[in-house]
């Protein structure tokens, strides 16, 4: 995977913070929280390979969760970011945790990370991945018309937002181009659905934050994350859905900064569990 073609935005100064978006999203997802973070830190918002302005690898190269973890690790090394603070949402949360487990991160803040599904949620994720593969055979104009319809917009709000009646989200809609044949989303979705976080430990401060109204990845995943990472700090984001930085940016930014503060107060590692 050509890491030199990963597109990113940078701002601020201080210890580095790297922001990783979820499946089907892009670096702009982090705009609501970048301002407060840049007041204290040098912040990098990445477009993961295949999303935003970063190209996907060709069909003959590995393109799954491990390859994305490696791509982020290498771009951080190329940028001279030694043990940055990593923040990720959904797929990005899993990448951040994997890098934390590898000793690459100073701290990890994971917002609704994939990899902690129970059986029902895991089956649902596989169904969604299969549905995306089947939808890729439908002409894009037809898919976009369905996405832009009132029922399509209502479904988008239901899946992605905690407060489905917020007038500010009335124009929210899925981008049908994301599920075109051969798209990054269609290629990655089966791997994301099958992925399970299985690292034996994450030797840095960790916060696992979950929206209590996340309908895409059930909040019960937080309990499984804490069993896997016992020292992690759990945060419930009240009223938030799957993309909490767009719904409660002030609170999300504060939790990120608190996690980074744990690094300073404990020398980069947590010893006894914070519970």
Automatic annotation (TrEMBL):
SUPFAM superfamilies: alpha/beta-Hydrolases (SSF53474)
An annotated Gene Ontology molecular function: catalytic activity
Source taxon at top rank: Bacteria
Gene3D superfamilies assigned: alpha/beta hydrolase
InterPro entries per the UniProt record, alphabetical: AB_hydrolase_1, AB_hydrolase_fold
Domain AB hydrolase-1 positions: 17-254
Protein name according to UniProt: Pimeloyl-ACP methyl ester carboxylesterase
Source organism (scientific name): Nocardiopsis mwathae
